C-alpha cells in the first residue's frame, strides 16, 4: 500500500481482501456484492466489479486488542475493486450510523486513506432536507472525519486502481439505511468524467436542494490528531485522543466542517 498504517496489514486484489503480519489480528472477511448496493446507484441495472469491496471489521495489533475492547473502539479495513459501476465510481451505498446502546447516540467515524484516491460524500441529514453537503477529497495518509448522525458514502476517485482505507468507529456499530434508501441515495451522485474527473449530479428525490461543498482533506488539530502520522500509531501513543469516536458527547459538533 502507498501509506503504511502503523501495523503489518496488506491489501490484495485477487482475491480481494487482506493479509496480516506477525502480531496483527483480523476477522473473517465480509464481501459487499453489487446486488446489495444497486438500490442506491444512479443506474441500478449497471454492470461493475463483483464483489465491489471487502471489509475486515476489527483489525489491529495483539498488544492493543484488550484496550480496544475496553474503550469500545473498533478499527476496520476496507478495500475497493478498481473499475466503475456503470457511469459511477465504485462506492458504498451510503448510510447513517445507528444509535449505539453504549452511548445512546449516533457516533462519528474517522477515515485514513492507505492507497488510491477517495471522496467521502456526506450530508447532515438523510431527511428531505439534507442540510450541508460535503465532498472531501483525500489521498494516502490523509484523514477525513464524519460527524455523528451524518449520512455518508465512500467513493473511489480513481477507477484505474483499488481504494484501500482504515476506519475508526464504535465497537457496537450499526447502520441505518432507511433515509438513504428512501431517496435512492445521497443528495448528490458522483458521475465519472474524463480521466479522474468526477461530475456531480443532484438527486431529485430530495425536495430541498442544497449546494455541494467540494474541498480537499484538512488537518484536525481540533480533535488532537497529527498530520502525516498513522492514526493507529497516534492511538498507541495516546489512546485517549480517540475517545470522541465511541463517546461523541466529549465535544460539540455544531457547525463542524469536515
TrEMBL record:
Its family remark reads:
Belongs to the archaeal-type GPI family.
Question: Which SUPFAM superfamilies does this UniProt record tie to the protein?
Answer: RmlC-like cupins
- Single Gene Ontology MF annotation: isomerase activity
Write out the pathway annotation from the protein's UniProt entry: Carbohydrate degradation; glycolysis; D-glyceraldehyde 3-phosphate and glycerone phosphate from D-glucose: step 2/4
In the record, what lineage is assigned to the organism producing the protein? Bacteria, Bacillati, Actinomycetota, Actinomycetes, Micrococcales
Q: Which residues form the Glucose-6-phosphate isomerase prokaryote domain?
A: 49-188
Catalytic reactions of this protein: alpha-D-glucose 6-phosphate = beta-D-fructose 6-phosphate
Entry's EC annotation: 5.3.1.9
Any one Pfam family here would be GPI
InterPro entries to which the protein is assigned, alphabetical: G6P_isomerase_prok, RmlC-like_jellyroll, RmlC_Cupin_sf
Its recorded name reads glucose-6-phosphate isomerase
Q: Which domain of life is it from?
A: Bacteria
* Signal peptide range in chain numbering: none
Q: Which UniProt keywords apply?
A: Gluconeogenesis, Glycolysis, Isomerase
